[in-house]
Amino acid sequence: MSLRLSTVILPYRRWSEGGRSTWTRAEQLGFHTAYTYDHLSWRSFRDGPWFGAVPTLTAAAGVTERLRLGTLVTSPNFRHPVTLAKELITLDDISGGRITLGIGAGGTGFDATALGQEPWSPRERADRLAEFVPLLDRLLTEDAVSYEGRFYSAGEARNIPGCVQRPRLPFAVAATGPRGLRLAARHGQAWVTTGDPKLYETGTPEQSVEALRGQMGKLSEACAAVGRDMAELDKILLTGFTPDRGTLLQSVDAFVDFAGRHRDLGFTEIVIHWPIPDSDFAADEKAFEQIAMDGLAQLN
């Protein structure tokens, strides 16, 4: 399978002040998918503008034609599967079947407390995701769903006519632990990782590659355990969180070196952040656009 290149566009700009033009430019540059974060706020952007993921993707669907769109990632931190399913079916319809749902367990950031609750433990986040994903799967594929679980319930929730994409829009499950990897193997059309967070500050690129190789091995084991061919899953690397995050967008050659090493591990999609000045995702815009236009030609 040829390597694909996608981007993440953070929702920090007003639609009339650069928001719209960024999404249309992503299509012009030939990205496979343009994702956005599904957060209520995020890290250093907390005290600045930040817009909702679903309305942003809806607007993006209206100004693009070919570009796939999605979240990296949605989590149960402030979502309920019943209401999320309705929004996703609507978004899939408006986009003409171009939506991918990136989904994960979430973390302990601002999303975890914005609704007034205490942050959930890692175990509770995993427990919730393990219930959330199968229920969302049903809600997106069945006309009416009733369910009574530990964390979530549905009472004859109706989702007619369902997704444009059949049997439903694809799930890209973000996971590195055994339970999340099993969810990816059982319910995912793709698997997402950002690498090993323990290597973010002091690790080396070589250590990161080995850690990702280990994650691939665990994904293979999870697929084997549920009788799934691992080759059926796309493997997505969200960049920006590995030791070489500061160099991979410096030039086409730097990107090709990075992408080639990770393609050889088995990744089928590389996701790079749209440059944001004065942030962790600052990058030269000309180099970024050159990578978007020419980077894959040297690999595929």
> Could you tell me the radius of gyration in angstroms?
18 Å
Structural class: alpha/beta
Number of contiguous helices: 8
Intertermini distance? 9 Å
Q: How are the strands of the largest sheet arranged?
A: 1-2-3-4-7-8-9-10
Q: Uncertain regions: pLDDT < 50 for 5+ in a row?
A: none
Query: How many strands, what sense, and barrel or not for the largest sheet?
Result: 8 strands, parallel, barrel
Say how many strands there are: 10
Order of helices and strands: EHEHEHEHEEEHEHEHEH
Binned, the helix content reads 25-40%
Beta-strand portion reads 15-25%
- Provide mean pLDDT, rounded: 96
Q: Can you tell me the overall shape?
A: globular
Description:
With about 300 residues, the chain is of the alpha/beta class. It has eight helices and ten strands. The strands form two sheets. It has an eight-stranded parallel beta barrel, surrounded by five helices. The longest helix is centred in the C-terminal third of the chain and has 21 residues, at about 205-225. The protein is globular.
Q: Can you lay out the helices and strands and say which pair or pack?
A:
Layout: E1 4-8, H1 19-28, E2 33-36, H2 53-63, E3 68-74, H3 81-95, E4 99-103, H4 122-141, E5 144-148, E6 153-158, E7 171-174, H5 178-187, E8 190-193, H6 205-225, E9 234-238, H7 252-265, E10 269-273, H8 285-294
Short recap of the structure:
The chain has 300 residues and is of the alpha/beta class.
